[in-house]
Amino acid sequence: MKFTHCCKEMWAHLQDERVDGLSMGDTPIGFIPEFREYGLKCQGEGTTARQDIRYCPWCGSCLPKDLRDQWFDVLEKLGFDDPWEQEIPEEFKTEEWWMERGL
Q: Is the CB of residue 67 less than 8 Å from the CB of residue 36?
């Protein structure tokens, strides 16, 4: 099972594909699958900052609630107290963990 985004345009922008002949590679939008977070990338040299968004800029759909807190909670229950430093299961590096749990 693969997660689908709200519309064709969102999917294309996140895949660096072409929509109606236009390259979407410069679109300042990102998606973090393990947290189910959408955000606008902040422009600037060397920055990795972003602003979370709650609605699709193309179709206006309400985006699903992010799962960042749940990601940490589930890993903690599995015995991982520092997932940034510990080797966590592969499923937690993608959307697989929350899709399998029906979140």
A: yes
Number of domains in the chain: 1
Domain carrying residue 92: 68-100
Structural domain contains residue 21: no
Residue 13 in any domain: the answer is no
Report CA dihedral (39, 40, 45, 48) to the nearest 10 degrees.
Answer: 0
Please tell me what DSSP assigns to residue 93: G
Residue whose structure tokens are 């519309």: 7
- Say yes or no to pLDDT of 96 above 90: yes
Q: What is the pTM of this model?
A: 0.79
Residue 27: pLDDT over 80 = no
Whether residue 98 contacts residue 36, with contact meaning beta carbons closer than 8 Å, is answered with: yes
